[in-house]
UniProtKB/TrEMBL annotation:
Annotated InterPro entries: Homeodomain-like_sf (IPR009057), HTH-type_TetR-like_transc_reg (IPR050109), HTH_TetR (IPR001647)
DNA-binding region, residues: 37-56
Organism: Chryseobacterium ureilyticum
A GO molecular-function descriptor: DNA binding
Ranges for domain HTH tetR-type: 14-74
Keywords: DNA-binding
Name of the featured protein: Transcriptional regulator, TetR family
Source species, domain of life: Bacteria
PANTHER family: HTH-TYPE TRANSCRIPTIONAL REPRESSOR SCO4008, TRANSCRIPTIONAL REPRESSOR
Residue ranges that the Swiss-Prot or TrEMBL entry lists as coiled coil: none
C-alpha cells in the first residue's frame, strides 16, 4: 500500500512560505504598507501567525524577503553572460530598459518605492543598501575601469539621473497622470519615445570616455 502523504503547513513548508509571501504582496497592493501587520498577513494567507515566526523569524524578515523578491535591482544577475569589453555599454541599456518595463508591470514594487520615499525604516534602508551593493559590483568591476579616474564618477552621475528618471516616470504614470512633457506614457508610442531617449542618453554617457 502506498504511504499516505500528510498535507498541511508542517509537511509543505515551502508552499506555506510562498503563501505567506503572497499575502504580503496582496496586502501591500490593496491596503498599502500600513496594512502589513502580523495578524493581517496570517489571516490573508490562511495560517496561524506563529508560522511567520517559525519560518521567517519575524514579520520584518518576512516582509524583507518579499521586498527583495520584488525589487528589480536586487534580482539583477551579476553573472549575466555578456561581453564586458565595451565597459558595460550594452549591459547598461539592457538592465535600464528592463527596469523601466518591470516597474510599469509591478504594482507591488511601485508601492515599495513610494514606501521608501515616505518612511525611514531599517527594512527599507536595508533594501537601499542591497541595491547599492549590486550597483557597486556593476560600476566598480565594469564601468569604472573602462572610463578611468575622473570620468568614471561623471558616468555614475549620469546613470543616477537615468535610473531615477525611469523610476519617477512610472510612478507618475501609475499614481498621478499619464502625460508628462506632452508624452502620453500610457501609450506604446509614448513609452517607446522614453525608451529611445534612455538608449540615446546611455550612448551619450559612453561617448564621454577619454
Amino acid at each position: 500500500m502506498p504511504r499516505k502523504v500528510v498535507q498541511g503547513p508542517i509537511r509543505d513548508k515551502e508552499k506555506t512560505k510562498q503563501k505567506l509571501l503572497a499575502a504580503v504582496g496582496k496586502i501591500l497592493r490593496v491596503k498599502g504598507y500600513s496594512g502589513l501587520k502580523v495578524s493581517k498577513i496570517a489571516a490573508v494567507a490562511g495560517f496561524d501567525k506563529k508560522l511567520i515566526y517559525e519560518y521567517f523569524g519575524s514579520t520584518d524578515k518576512l516582509i524583507d524577503e518579499y521586498i527583495k523578491s520584488q525589487d528589480y535591482w536586487s534580482q539583477v544577475n551579476k553573472d549575466v553572460e555578456v561581453d564586458y569589453s565595451d565597459g558595460g555599454h550594452e549591459l547598461t541599456k539592457m538592465v535600464v530598459l528592463n527596469q523601466f518595463e518591470n516597474l510599469k508591470k509591478n504594482k507591488e514594487l511601485q508601492k515599495i518605492i513610494l514606501w521608501e520615499l515616505s518612511e525611514n525604516k531599517p527594512i527599507l534602508k536595508k533594501l537601499v543598501e542591497q541595491r547599492e551593493e549590486v550597483g557597486e559590483v556593476l560600476f566598480g568591476n565594469i564601468s569604472d575601469p573602462y572610463f578611468g579616474e575622473g570620468v568614471a564618477m561623471r558616468h555614475r552621475a549620469i546613470m543616477a539621473l537615468i535610473v531615477s528618471g525611469a523610476y519617477y516616470l512610472n510612478l507618475y504614470t501609475g499614481y498621478n497622470a499619464s502625460v508628462f512633457c506632452g508624452i502620453d506614457l500610457k501609450t506604446e508610442e509614448g513609452r517607446k519615445e522614453i525608451e529611445q531617449a534612455i538608449v540615446e542618453l546611455i550612448d551619450f554617457a559612453y561617448s564621454k570616455k577619454k
